[in-house]
Structures are given as structure tokens and as C-alpha cells.
Please model this.
Amino acid sequence: MVNKLKKAFQPVLIGMLVLGLCATVNAQSLEQVMKERGLSQADILAAAKTYTPSGKLDEYVVFSSGGQSGHVIVYGVPSMRILKYIAVFTPEPWQGYGYGDVASMAILDQGRIRGRKITWGDTHHPAISETNGEYDGQYLFINDKANPRVAVIDLKTFSTVQIVPNPIMKSQHGSTFVTPNTEYVLETSLYPAPFSNDYVPLEEFNEKYRGAMTMWKFNRKRGKIIAEDSFSVELPPYCQDLTDAGKKVSAGWVFTNSFNTERYIGGFGKGNTKFRDRLPHEAGMSAKDTDYLHMINLETAKKLFKEGKDTKINGHAVISMETMIANNALFLIPEPKSPHGVMIDPSGQYLTVSGKLDTHVSVYDFKKMMKLIESKQYDGRDPYNIPILSMQESLHGQVELGLGPLHTQYDKEKGIAYTSLFVDSAVARWDFLKLKLIEKVPIHYNVGHLVSAEGDTVSPDGKYLIALNKLAIDRFVQVGPLHPQNHQLIDISPGQPMQVLYDMPIPLGEPHYAVMMKADKLKTIKRFKQKWFKHRVKPGKERVVRKGNQVTVYSSIIRSHYSPEIIEVKVGDEVTWHLTNLERAQDETHGFTVDTYNINASLEPGETNTFKFIADKEGVFPFYCTEFCAALHLEMMGYFLVKP
Ligand code: RUQ
Ligand code: CUA
Model:
């Protein structure tokens, strides 16, 4: 009733808002601006809902994958102001990440695979650490789809602290997802391949190619994934896709969906292989009407790992399908073909799966699935002997939402969910308990993932939803054939139709998935403490120490000079240069670069960075501060002199 009244009076309310503003600001000016800029009252309302005056902070913070940039993009909601790009798999000069400083170089070096240094990543799915199923704001995890790796970001500093390559996978996608207390970070393979690094012909695909899910053990105190305490579960050579960890009633189980349960290996095209006359992958991989939702008992897998029931492959513990099946810990359930993601509702009981080629979203009931497992009621077994549960008997129901349903997020209101419709370019609001569509809102264009406020947790906030759109086409000033992506902010307040509030171009890689957290959960530090750095330089203790051809420089930096300012070495000297920013004022960052050495540092107050290089060429090399820090910033320089 109240809502109906509100709806009826909405135009009046907007009118009052406009008039009210007019009365207090300047009647002419607002009307004039609206007229001049062609703004409607709905535009003004949207602006009022997103505009964040100078000095006011956003209520939510979004961590978005940065796609091919290998970074994470951070922005605020509702303002949609970009706050930071966190460098993860790719060097990033502003943060001095991967440009010579020993610590960040070592992190990027952890990401080597089979000895090869990799300087880019394809970030897809970020996950915030959770405590009891709630975001706790401590850590962020993100995957690299291109080179199977996961990274840990410490949200105290918003910096990457660890990169962990997967020892058995050759690609991955279903990553990262965390268990409700962040005991494990889940990583699931995408394209099946042998676990070993050997060549195995495609004819042996069914026998020797495999999928897997890795359970990375996260040690919160150390802020690190502990490889020795982690293990994987072997899966059939299907393309496992997005994953989710059970919560509340389904805690202890993990789920992943899949495509290409046909195990089609393609070959189309005039390549040099014997398979050349076959259909392309896309046709062969979607031939069947259903694929398999995988259900894995994590608790049992943990137990099996503890009991040593694993095999070591490339030094990593793998629990075989056979062992998992024998211990009632691995099941399959048919799902509409080629889905993207299995999303568990806040209660943990319902799982939504949308086959992109089906117009329905399927809602599975975990309790029904468990009943089938307990009574050992199987519909058969897959070629790897994994028991299959009946789809019909596992389903709570299906709802027709529209074309290309893709990803679902949950609301604060019980039973309410939002599903992106890729082909329709729309978002559906629907009730997954009552199985009915409520409304749709059009989106520009071709929406992929959605993110709602705290939408992955046991208690979503509602309020805001963001559509992560793949195309921008005509939404922004043209910047050439490569367009930005478009994140659209949608108001999902209850009792009113969904309203698109804001278009934000994302100009750095293609975001795939994002997570949105209450900003007040962040506990970031404002400045570093000098004592945290082993090689810090105390004021007055700056010096240059020579031992044979090894030269160690202990430099301090403070507005607006380096100390020492002149460093003289000989060609061939091995230089270790420690620099400490002695500033105490917040945000007083200084930079450091040496002419042609391809190094750049961002030294935040209190921070020490170390650079190691060989003075390999004779010459005069000015060094300077790369961050405009004070009136005498240009004077903040020195000479690095290399004598013959
Ligand atoms: S997404 S393929 Cu969920 Cu990784 Cu874009
Ligand atoms: Cu220090 Cu510019």
C-alpha cells in the first residue's frame, strides 16, 4: 500500500524535489541547466542518487576484474568513481610494481610457469575473504584464466602479496571462489589437459586428459596460500566452468558446472592435423541438451587428503575420481547445456544455473539433492563411473526469463534474484522461490556478469546492482574501434521498478566479474611503519658502502631531496640501492627513477624499496622523483655517475 502510494506520488515527489532544490538553490539555474542539457526529471533523480559531492565518500566499494590488463579495478558506488587499479599479474609503473623493486619483482617471479616468466594475466573472478559467509574486507583473490594462477591481494595496502601457479592445470576459469571462512580458495580448470607436462596425443583425450578443482589452503594469519596444505580433486575431461562454495545448509560441499560433456575435440579448419574435416568446437561442444553440474564433498576430500589418500603429481596432491566416488564425495546432475556459473543463494539451499542457450533458469534444491545421495538413488553413471542424480528430482523448478540467461545475483529480499540476459540485453528481477518473473530492465548492451551489493554473501544488501556490459557501441564519445566496456549502475530498491542510474566506461581491459562490499569494512593502513622494512634507512645514517665491486647505497627521501644526492660507481659494479621515504604526512609519496635503467618506484610514506642492478655502461645518469610532491619537486634529483 505504502509502495503503491509512493509510486502514484512519484512524479509529484520528483516535482517537489526539483522545486525544493529550485527554492533553495536557484530556481532559474536548475531549470535552465535541465533545459540546456536536455535532462528529464528521471535524469535529475538518477543524478541525485549517484552524485557524490567533494569530500563525501562512497557507501560501497567494487573490486572488478581487469580482464586482459591483468589488474583489478577498484571503484566506488554510487558515484562510480574509479579509485585504483591494483597491479596483480602485470607490471604497473605508477605503483612501481614490476619495475625493478626487489619485492614486487619477486612476487611476479612467483608466477613463473615451467620456468617461463609471464608478464600478463587475464583476470576474471575476484573474491573477497569471508568470515561466516560475510565479506570481511581483509583479502581479495583473483585468477588468471590465461595462465592458471591465483593471486592474493592484501586489502590493508591494496597490493598483491602472492601469486600461485597451478601445478597441474593448463588453463582455468572457475576461480576464485572462497569457502565461508576462507579456509580454501577454489580454482577449477577449464580446458582439459594432461596433469603432467608431457605431450599426450588427442586420441588419448578420454583416458589421459583431465579436469580438476584445486582447494588452495589459505592461512589468514600469514596472509598466504600454503601450497603444501593444498590439494586437488581429479575431474572428468569436461570443460568445468564457474564454481561456488556451499554455505549454511550446503557448507562443506562445493559445486562447479561444465560444458562439453560431449568431450568433443574439434579439429575444424585447414590445419595440419588429421582431424581437419570435423565440425568446429562450438558445434561439437554443444551437441547435447544437457551438461553436468558437479557436486564435490570438500569435507570428505579434506579427510582423504589428511589420510594421505592422494597421489603426488608434479609434487602436488591429487585425489583421484575413483577415491572420491568410493567415498561418496563426487556426483553429477544434468543441467541445461553450456551454462555459466552455479550461484548459491544466501540460505545455501538453492542453486541457480542458467544454460546460455536455454531461456530458463534452473533452480536446484540442495536438500533434494542430498536426499537422492542419501538413498543412493542414481540415474546412472557417467563414463568415469561418477553417479548421476536425476535432474527432475533435484530441481526446485525452472523459470523462463528470456534469451541468454547468464549470471544470477541475490537481493536482501527473500527469494529475489537478478539474472543477466546476454542476448536480450536486459536484467530480469525474479523470485526463485515462487518461480516467477517480476520485471525486466533493458541494458546497453550484452550484459555478462552482474554484481549486487554483498550479493555473494549470506546476507546481500540489495540497493545496488551493476550490469557488467560487454559492449558500449554508442554510449560514449568514440575513441576508435576498441571501445571501453560499460558498467551500468541500477537502483534495485524494493517497491519500485529497477532504474538504470549511471553508465561508467571501463577503459582498461575487459572486466568479467566484480564483487561489491560495504566500504566501511575496509581496514586499510594510511601509511607504512618504517620498522616493517628490514633495509630501512634511518635519518642521518644514509651512506654508500663498497665491498669489492659490490656497492650498497642507503638512501633516504624527504621533501625535496635524496640523500645522498651523488653516487659514483665504476662500470661493472653491482649496485644494491635501498631507498626509504622518511615522510610522516599521509599521501606524501615520492618516486625514483634512474635514466635508462627501466626502473620506477612509488615510495609511500614510511616505505623502503630496494633495487639491484649492474652499472653496465659508463656515463652520467640523472635520477629524479617521479611523483609531483612539492614546490621543489623538479629540484628533487641526483646524479648516478658511472666511471670507466
Ligand atoms: S566470465 S569468459 Cu565469468 Cu570469466 Cu567472462
Ligand atoms: Cu618527491 Cu617529487
